């Protein structure tokens, strides 16, 4: 499972590929477990092939006959837990060998990281050292990150495609600065790239961008299949630069699947979505395979990603034309549009989000993390099936919502009381006023909702 087969000829696996047949295979296999004994040798083989392809897509330094190191996971969150554990153990082993303390590991990230990094830090007892954001700069600043690195830093995590704005962090600059710091200190601090979304975008439409194993300090990378890998939910991967980057002691060897089976995952069983790479017209297997098929549709990925980018630009221009929003996302990055209301508005992005639901749009509104909490954005992620027509319709619906809001008093002002709100308007500086509006809105939402569980 962990060290996949050498360079492959996937064509030999693909006898026929027809979308409806694949869907049927997926439905037929819905009751199957990835680790089912009958399926085991084939599913493992297929997964190894995926690992090899992905590692090579990310420019791992592998010879033609060398096998890549990696593992299939349920998604990027599991992949990140595994990558983080490997960094922690490597760091501890190094410290032990040097006769130094190893009880205070930390990890350096931007405050914009996805919650799975906070989970990793809390669950696996690693201090999370976050670089704060600022208004207009919503990704990790590599200079500040390198400054924050100390002898207890197990790795710096950079994101290729921030969840909040889609922006790619500058991994090249981070690498170059860290190389210098490592030379000066002898610490050897490595980099992990969280390419949950960007891992299947950058190689196809920004091939010149250096963010992956071309940079010497990048030791592991995760990617989700169910984001821009274009497959159903329940599949992700983590790949390591070389075998040495994954400590052997973390790998378990089991034989109850009929042969020696190395395993390094948090969950043993998996759903059939991992068989999504399925193309082989053998009706018994389903998940790893569908990912294979997508790869195999030649330039399919490049076309899909270019199309997403074009539709993102159509949407962005439409939103700009309303003259009511600032665009917060960048043209280069995950194809999404993140935007904020311009200037001082008596309505909030939350109200726009809520009103768009009436037209069938679910456009989340959220506040930025520290120190940019006073900024609220709306975000539209452009996926394969989001057409130009939909982009135009969304702009038209946003205009309708704005028009309606212009004729209404703000919900927050009603909730807070017109007088209070007028005071807020008069007395507070812009930033404080916005915070008050956000707090008012949060209270408004909380009053209406009962939490039944956690997600
Ligand atoms: C940057 C980033 N990392 C990690 C994750 C977690 O990915 P998954 O849902 O595949 O566990 C996400 C999900 O949104 C993400 O955007």
From TrEMBL:
<dbReference type="InterPro" id="IPR015421">
    <property type="entry name" value="PyrdxlP-dep_Trfase_major"/>
</dbReference>
<comment type="similarity">
    <text>Belongs to the group II decarboxylase family.</text>
</comment>
<keyword id="KW-0210">Decarboxylase</keyword>
<protein>
    <recommendedName>
        <fullName>Glutamate decarboxylase</fullName>
        <ecNumber>4.1.1.15</ecNumber>
    </recommendedName>
</protein>
<keyword id="KW-0112">Calmodulin-binding</keyword>
<dbReference type="InterPro" id="IPR015424">
    <property type="entry name" value="PyrdxlP-dep_Trfase"/>
</dbReference>
<dbReference type="Pfam" id="PF00282">
    <property type="entry name" value="Pyridoxal_deC"/>
</dbReference>
<keyword id="KW-0456">Lyase</keyword>
<keyword id="KW-0663">Pyridoxal phosphate</keyword>
<dbReference type="InterPro" id="IPR010107">
    <property type="entry name" value="Glutamate_decarboxylase"/>
</dbReference>
<dbReference type="InterPro" id="IPR002129">
    <property type="entry name" value="PyrdxlP-dep_de-COase"/>
</dbReference>
């Amino acid at each position: 499972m962990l060290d996949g087969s050498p360079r492959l000829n996937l064509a030999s696996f693909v006898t026929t590929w027809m979308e409806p047949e694949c869907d049927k295979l997926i439905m037929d296999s819905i009751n199957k477990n990835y680790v089912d004994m009958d399926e085991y040798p084939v599913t493992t083989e297929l997964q190894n092939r995926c690992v090899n392809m992905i590692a090579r897509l990310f420019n791992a330094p592998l010879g033609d006959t060398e096998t890549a190191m990696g593992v299939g996971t349920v998604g990027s969150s599991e992949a990140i837990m595994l990558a983080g554990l490997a960094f922690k153990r490597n760091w501890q082993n190094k410290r032990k060998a040097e006769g130094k303390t190893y009880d205070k590991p930390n990890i350096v990230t931007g405050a914009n990281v996805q919650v799975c990094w906070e989970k990793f830090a809390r669950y696996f007892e690693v201090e999370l050292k976050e670089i704060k954001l600022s208004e207009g700069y919503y990704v990790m600043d590599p200079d500040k990150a390198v400054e924050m690195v100390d002898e207890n830093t197990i790795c710096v995590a950079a994101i290729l495609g921030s969840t909040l704005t889609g922006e790619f962090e500058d991994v090249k600059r981070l690498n170059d600065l860290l190389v210098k710091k490592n030379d000066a200190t002898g610490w050897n601090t490595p980099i992990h790239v969280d390419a949950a979304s960007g891992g299947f975008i950058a190689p196809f439409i920004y091939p010149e961008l250096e963010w992956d194993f071309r940079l010497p300090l990048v030791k592991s990378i995760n990617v989700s299949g169910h984001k821009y890998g274009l497959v159903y939910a329940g599949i992700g991967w983590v790949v390591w630069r070389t075998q040495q980057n994954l400590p052997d002691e973390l790998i378990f060897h089991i034989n109850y699947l009929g042969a020696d089976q190395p395993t390094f995952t948090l969950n043993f069983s998996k759903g059939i979505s991992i068989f999504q790479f399925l193309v082989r017209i053998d009706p018994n297997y389903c998940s790893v395979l569908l990912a294979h098929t997508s790869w195999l549709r030649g330039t399919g990925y490049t076309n899909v990603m270019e199309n997403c980018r074009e539709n993102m630009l159509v949407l962005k221009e439409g939103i700009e034309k309303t003259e009511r929003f600032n665009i917060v996302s960048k043209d280069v990055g995950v194809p999404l549009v993140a935007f904020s209301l311009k200037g001082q508005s008596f309505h909030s992005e939350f109200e726009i989000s809520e009103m768009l639901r009436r037209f069938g749009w679910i456009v989340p509104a959220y506040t930025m993390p520290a120190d940019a909490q006073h900024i609220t954005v709306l975000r539209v992620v452009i996926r394969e099936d989001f057409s130009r027509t939909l982009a135009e319709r969304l702009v038209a619906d946003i205009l309708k919502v704005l028009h309606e809001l212009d004729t209404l008093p703000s919900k927050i002002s009603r909730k807070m009381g017109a007088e209070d709100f007028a005071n807020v308007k008069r007395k507070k500086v812009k930033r404080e006023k916005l915070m008050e509006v956000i707090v008012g809105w949060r209270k408004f939402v909380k009053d209406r909702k009962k939490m039944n569980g956690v997600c």
